[in-house]
Inverse folding.
């Protein structure tokens, strides 16, 4: 770690400690405390995985995975309602659909002359349509149904203690995989041809990467919702990408940016009484626009000075 | 028997036809590279230069014919190859340092172990040293000049300690002084390893290589690096714009 990375890591740790002490010093309802803790866990996951999403340019592939989870949630409720499988958790359904989508997307469709972005679009709408269809088959008296709005846009009332444990488990699993496969994922995302020549199993590594994305989205659904999950996955990493020359420091910066924006967004949503998921995403969007604008200004300035000299 | 036959065969293509989607890009290629060769391959765009390299690397399975690398199949033999892709191949926005790029060259030696060893780091350092890039090891790859970037990728190819260097348009993004520097590097490396280079830059290539081939679906090989009037007439079955410096006049070849 160089000096700059140490500074960023220090900011991240201070932010986490600040959020935790804030949570314990304030006498909020427990679901608000859980929202802040979920924000920490979500940031730790999406800063790392989001960096791969951004450098490999698979934002829309990830979005297809995110949308397909709606079908999985619908399927879980449908099974609960029609077969009485009350153990079938909506997040289990979401995970099954997300991994299924990851598997479909990691197939080499171009071999069949099918364009990749067509597959992305089809998967996206089929997942959503299946969700709508399954929801219509549910008898709301038989199951404790979560509304489609809550799944798509998030709801802090959904964040239970089990949700936090699930997020923690996903966090640990993803960190272990990235710890062991960091170099291989770097080769794959930088130069797939070199990966193949070097004897790396490209289809499997690619599927692992998409599976990491799938689990990240499942972890994000309850905080910001399936549709807004892509914002948390993409925006902090995209901002970090504008000022980082190294994958690890980009991940570190993305986590830190996400921690700060998620915590501020959560606070703002309490203060303004707005939906937290949407508030966090809008704040992230604003931060992104400000960063782009600042870069535009500094770029213009550089151009001007180079023209004058 | 000429003297070259004594040297071991490094690449051997026998009646190879290959392409994409059942459409052959190269047809019935017979091509032999021997140890110590510095082989230049020229040809028009779309003539099958890159296809040929991909066949050698085992990235394309030929429709017919046989490919041997150091007497092995391409999948087996390519671990002896250091490959330099075209410069357009890379994402310049990718956040990665020169060191990490060069270290990637060691991946084929690493097996399934997730980390690099001290030996890998030593070989990478040596490779960067040999291309004069060790000082810039911390630099981001996107912030280098064309020549520096190319040398970083050459270091990656060298890090695996290859027996054969396969170069795809190595000087395409490099300014003239940088080009001379890179070609001198290749001449130096050629003392230790076989080199096969694909290029459209006929003038530069002929002054450094020891053998020459021209590919345009079919291949025509020459054991001499000099383009003469006679060779142009006889050898090149490819229509191409040829602008060379020195003895060869500017000329456009007709389609034979």
């Amino acid at each position: 770690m160089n000096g700059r990375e140490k500074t960023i890591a220090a900011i991240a740790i201070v932010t986490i400690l600040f959020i935790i002490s804030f949570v314990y010093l304030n006498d909020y309802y427990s679901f608000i405390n859980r929202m802040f803790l979920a924000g920490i866990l979500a940031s730790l996951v999406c800063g790392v995985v989001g960096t791969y999403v951004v450098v490999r340019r698979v934002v829309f592939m990830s979005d297809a995975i995110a949308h397909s989870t709606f079908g999985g949630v619908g399927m879980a409720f449908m099974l609960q309602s029609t077969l009485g499988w009350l153990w079938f958790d909506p997040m289990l359904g979401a995970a099954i659909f997300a991994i299924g989508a990851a598997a479909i997307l990691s197939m080499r469709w171009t071999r069949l002359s099918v364009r990749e972005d067509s597959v992305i679009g089809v998967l996206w709408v089929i997942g959503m349509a299946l969700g709508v269809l399954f929801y219509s088959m549910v008898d709301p008296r038989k199951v404790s149904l979560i509304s489609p709005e809550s799944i798509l846009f998030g709801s802090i009332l959904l964040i239970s203690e089990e949700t936090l444990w699930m997020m923690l488990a996903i966090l640990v699993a993803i960190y272990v995989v990235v710890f062991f496969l960091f170099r291989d994922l770097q080769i794959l995302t930088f130069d797939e041809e070199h990966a193949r020549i070097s004897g790396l199993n490209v289809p499997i590594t690619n599927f692992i990467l998409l599976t990491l994305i799938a689990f990240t989205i499942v972890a994000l659904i309850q905080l910001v919702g399936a549709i807004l999950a892509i914002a948390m996955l993409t925006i902090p990493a995209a901002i970090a990408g504008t000022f980082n020359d190294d994958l690890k420091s980009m991940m570190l910066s993305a986590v830190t940016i996400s921690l700060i924006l998620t915590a501020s967004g959560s606070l703002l949503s309490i203060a303004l009484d707005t939906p937290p998921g949407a508030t966090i995403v809008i704040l992230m969007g604003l931060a992104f626009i400000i960063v782009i604008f600042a870069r535009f200004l500094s770029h213009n300035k550089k151009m001007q000075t180079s023209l004058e000299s | 028997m000429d003297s070259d036959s004594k040297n071991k065969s490094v690449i051997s293509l026998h009646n190879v036809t290959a392409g994409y989607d059942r459409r052959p890009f190269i047809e019935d290629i017979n091509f032999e590279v021997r140890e110590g060769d510095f082989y230049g391959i020229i040809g028009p765009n779309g003539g099958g230069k890159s296809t040929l390299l991909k066949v050698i690397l085992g990235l394309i399975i030929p429709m017919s014919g046989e490919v041997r690398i150091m007497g092995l199949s391409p999948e087996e033999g390519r671990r002896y190859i250091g490959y330099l892709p075209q410069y357009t191949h890379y994402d310049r926005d990718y956040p990665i340092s020169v060191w990490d790029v060069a270290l990637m060259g060691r991946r084929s030696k690493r097996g399934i172990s997730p980390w690099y060893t001290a030996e890998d780091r030593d070989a990478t350092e040596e490779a960067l040293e040999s291309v004069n890039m060790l000082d810039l090891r911390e630099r981001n790859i996107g912030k280098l000049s064309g020549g520096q970037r190319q040398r970083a990728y050459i270091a990656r190819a060298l890090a695996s300690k290859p027996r054969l260097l396969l170069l795809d348009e190595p000087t395409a993004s490099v300014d003239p002084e940088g080009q001379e520097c890179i070609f001198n590097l290749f001449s130096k490396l050629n003392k230790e390893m076989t080199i096969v280079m694909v290029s459209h830059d006929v003038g530069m290539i002929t002054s450094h290589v020891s053998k020459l081939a021209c590919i345009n679906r079919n291949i025509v090989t020459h054991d001499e690096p000099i383009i003469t009037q006679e060779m142009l007439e006889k050898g090149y079955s490819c229509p191409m714009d040829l602008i060379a410096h020195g003895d060869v006049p500017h000329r456009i070849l007709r389609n034979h």
Residues 3-221+230-308 of chain A form a domain with the ABC transporter involved in vitamin B12 uptake, BtuC fold (CATH 1.10.3470.10). Residues 276-308 of chain A form the longest helix (33 residues). Chain A touches chain B through 26 residues (CB under 8 Å). Chain A has a mean pLDDT of 92.
